[in-house]
Amino acid sequence: MNPSISQPAVAVIDIGSNSIKVLVAARAPTGGLTILKTRTLDARISAGISQAVPRLSEPGMAAGLDAIRALLAEAAPFSPAATVLVATSAVRDAQNGTEFRDRVSRATGHAIRILSGDEEANLIGRGLTCDPALAELRDFYMFDLGGGSLECLAFRDRKIQQAVSLQLGCVRLTEKFVTDPTAPFSSEAQRAIRQHTQDLLAQSNFGFALPPGTAAIGTGGTVTVARAILAARSGLTLEASEPQVTLAQLHELLAWLGPLPLAERRSIAGLPPARADVMPAALTTLITVAETGGFTAYRHSLYNLRYGLAAEALETL
Asked: Model's pTM, two decimal places?
């Protein structure tokens, strides 16, 4: 254990479809989490995930392994008592996901736990309840949009009542519906993504059954980036900005960046260049979910899958 930390720490590495993230956390005196380290690296291991037979590419696996090694090195100074590696949609759906898992195990000595869609959704929900800024909420929805999937949850009295994982990730939909990601986002692609999102929501029977006006919490890269862009336009840091991202703001962002070619999108402050190609599809998906559920805004939280996994791991120490 790091001598500067009074409680044992755990490290969690979340191998997502678009990015790979680390969280190092310890148990706080209040029973919550003390956050010691976070970092995100864009790796895009999910390239090719929308194909009929999804496979992880060799460059994607190499980039993923490099990112995992780098994040393990950043966690090491905290001497974590446990280190947890998990993979989500891209690895669980890929025909060669086991090959990637074996490669990481040989290179690092750590096994990867591949989460099912239900496990991912429920752990994201557990992480969200660790957010002290949301402690007053009892009934709410949560939507976590990643590169490979969209997790939809409904909470009553802070307990998960419904959890659904849908193949609506922004990398997946960009590959499926955007013919040329370097060109402006076409109205045809926008309509197709909107219809596909509506269809999968309807087929999932996810019940938007909480009372009208119930808060919708947004986690994952898309809401974070949308908030970061809005913050940069106001000369603010993400942390100093308003956590509420309204439906009107999402529409305005899509109307602004959608018509831009990829080269111009990559220069937008707050928008990581590696995410510029998938951002129009991601915004379209978030907008469609909000309009389907009757929400006027998402309240942004950074507490998602990693935080749920950290809380779970700390219970075993």
From this structure: 0.89
